[in-house]
Amino acid sequence: MFHAAHGYERASGPEVKEPGTTPENRVATAVAPATSDLKSAARAAGKATGRDAYFDNAKYLAIVLVAVAHAWEPVMEGSRATRALYMVIYTFHMPAFIIISGYFSRSYRGKPHQLRRLLTGIALPYVVFEVAYSLFARYADDPSKPISLLDPFYLTWFLAALFVWRLTTPLWQTVRWPMSIALAICVLASLTPDIGADFNLARVLQFLPFFVLGLCLKPEHFQMLRRREVRLLAVPVIAGALLFAYWAAPRVNLSWFYRSRSVQERGWPWWSGLVVVLVLLACALVLSAAFLALVPARRAWFTMLGAGTICGYLLHGFAVRAGDYSGLFESQEWLGGPAGLVVLTLATAGMVTLMCTPPVRRALRFVTEPDMKWAFRQDPAERGPRR
């Protein structure tokens, strides 16, 4: 089993659902035509669905980093370099995902069709996969493992958090100083030990500023990140972060990156712990900007996979957990060496890539993108005029 300090039961990173009816966030329904040229297929898919290639690229690259970092967790203790890479990835990959999810939530107003999408696209997958992961853990490792929809298990926490954040979107669009209020809530949550584990509320509140930031961003902000000078600056920023992480790797408690506990629960005084929280927030913002600056804006062979990252996120955990429960990572010590880490990285990246492909997405559509018109009343405002 993995230690709690690794945050394995509190993993990160899913698909960002795009609600609404704008071209950027229209859910794709067409499948790229069969062709040997992957770039042509991606280009055709983008034209058919109206999706923004930049954001699909960002989601695909981020979900690969999420899966790879999860695979590193059980074997990285013997490698200082891998631990440093893990720290850098965990600094920005969740904030970047949350910023994008906030950006695509700008049109949310709590209208009937948006509430239906919230229930079918976020709440339903949360319930299904929370039960699935709990049963998997019960029969593969811990027969006493309870099934509780109030206490997210493993990687389902993000769906619960996204449900809460998006439901509160109209409030953040109403108040005058949304970022200041969100930062204040984040600080108070990091200094409150008695929040409780329901819906992983401590983590929901401590990541809240990134979602609110996404709500406040406009297209021109992302265009600014794509400028040549910003992209060039992102390279030394990430390189400097890697060098610092290599120095800090043996000295840093990884629980800071998961934001699932308060400062006091880590044994720190509130005032010094608060400094760490604020510094980590600043680092997360800078590295998220650097990552988003380096994401290619053009269509590539993997662009079409950005529409299926919810599948890659929800499915890769079963493979990683299976390796944990079976003792694979403990029995194969060579995986902790340089060659083993390279093999593990390539295998995990390939696995999550396959999980994001259109066939897998179609197979899971009954859970991740169900219609379920039968479950909802028709809104009178959406009915067409009668003859």
TrEMBL record:
Transmembrane residue ranges: 53-72, 84-106, 118-140, 146-165, 230-249, 269-294, 301-322, 334-356
Q: Which residues form a coiled coil?
A: none
Q: Which UniProt keywords apply?
A: Acyltransferase, Membrane, Transferase, Transmembrane, Transmembrane helix
Record-level Gene Ontology MF annotations: acyltransferase activity
Q: What Pfam family is a match, any one? A: Acyl_transf_3
Acyltransferase domain residues are: 53-349
Query: Region annotation Disordered: residue ranges?
Result: 1-24
Query: Entry's InterPro entries?
Result: Acyl_transf_3_dom, Nod_factor_acetyltransferase
Quote the PANTHER family the UniProt record gives: MEMBRANE-BOUND ACYLTRANSFERASE YKRP-RELATED
Name recorded for this polypeptide: Acyltransferase family protein
The species this protein belongs to is: Streptomyces peucetius
Name the lineage: Bacteria, Bacillati, Actinomycetota, Actinomycetes, Kitasatosporales
